[in-house]
Amino acid sequence: MKIYTHTQIGSTHTNHCEDYAVHFSLGKNRLLVAVTDGCTMGTDSYWVATVVGKVLRKIAKEIDYQEFASGALPLLQLQKQILKALFSALKDLKNNLQMQDDEMLCTLNLLLLDTQTQEAETITIGDGAIIWNGNLQEYEQNNLPDYLGYHLHEDFESWYAKQTQVLHLQNITDISVVTDGIFTFQEQDNSQAIQMLCIDKAGFEHKNALATKVHQLAYQYQQSPQDDIGIVRVIL
């Protein structure tokens, strides 16, 4: 298995990259992958995008230990457990730091992958995309993403039951989770960027392959992302 990550500030942004990309072990043959994208119109949105990644790291460590002690849960049950813990942690963080709603806004594109069975569960909160085995699922919310931060005052069970941007995948050999920055390399047709970064395997012999490909898109094809971009790609 090979894992590649890349984040990059977009050409229309100046101070911070508001995207964040992470991957963590969930025990034997299990992997958590996530990308987050802060709301540009929010306040210090790069901060909450990063914090979500850090909270997921803490949750992953706890699950890693739980699997060692008690055994592995089904992926879908594990997804709910992770989101419930994240929901609770963000609610506590908001209350403890007296944060406003506009300081808690970021998308979340979450993948749980079993590298042995090649099964995956994904959920996207807001916009972004999943690309697997050459297939593309884009989630586009017309620049009005339904951020998790809008719902921290709600009952988790009720909120979770309403989620529809989910995929149950099998026979995974190659999967990427990406923020919507992947669609800003060109105004009309971003197929070349998607192909080079998330489908082609040539050139992925080294760990910095995604950065190299983004550089190639910029200098050979004059294509650079206007929006920030976050990518994690897993090749089994």
Architecture overview:
- With 236 residues, the chain is α+β, with helices and mostly antiparallel strands.
- It has one domain: Phosphatase 2c, domain 1 (4-Layer Sandwich).
- It has 5 helices and 10 strands.
- It has a 5-stranded antiparallel sheet, with helices on one face.
- A hairpin with a 2-residue loop joins strand 6 and strand 7.
- Helix 1 packs across helix 2.
How is this fold's topology laid out?
Layout: E1 2-8, E2 19-25, E3 30-38, H1 45-70, H2 75-97, E4 106-114, E5 119-125, E6 128-132, E7 135-139, H3 156-161, E8 166-169, E9 174-178, H4 191-198, H5 209-221, E10 229-235
Antiparallel strand pairs: 1-10, 2-3, 3-4, 4-5, 5-8, 6-7, 6-9, 9-10
Write a concise keyword list for the protein shown above:
single chain; 236 residues; alpha+beta; Phosphatase 2c, domain 1; five-stranded antiparallel beta sheet; 5 helices; 10 strands
Number of helices: 5
Largest sheet: 5 strands, antiparallel
Radius of gyration: 17 Å
Q: Class by helix and strand content?
A: alpha+beta
In round numbers, the mean pLDDT is 93
Q: What's the helical proportion of residues?
A: 25-40%
- Across the major sheet, the strand order is 1-10-9-6-7
What's a quick, concise take on this entry?
This protein has 236 residues and is α+β, with helices and mostly antiparallel strands.
